[in-house]
């Protein structure tokens, strides 16, 4: 049986990386809110929505005039926002939770990546569409010396303002 292992690191990005991460946070929030409003409108019109419909609409949205800036971020992060919205809808209709809410700008910011959205080599995390790898810092042991902390996972969060 395979055991899953996780590592926890804290990353202190450079100013350029902070800007790229903020752009990913904003675009993920925009896509989630846009598709939530789209699903609500389609529900009022008597039409059904699914993840596939949202993914096709995302492709059209990225080509739309005025939304070209969505091309500057990783598609993996945008698709993760669609998956989170689809999960929220499924949980609502299964009566496990309340109706999905719009995401706010001043709450804790985060985005998710699947396995193809990042690479982890020698404890350096390289994210899709961010050029330089993020350097980890840990209080337990020096990561540069090759030692990994006992617990951990990459933290891709911006604290709430």
TrEMBL record:
Species whose genome carries this gene: Paraburkholderia hospita
InterPro entries named among the record's database cross-references: Transposase_put_HTH
Domain Transposase putative helix-turn-helix: 1-47
Protein known as: Transposase
Region described as Disordered: spans on this chain: 136-161
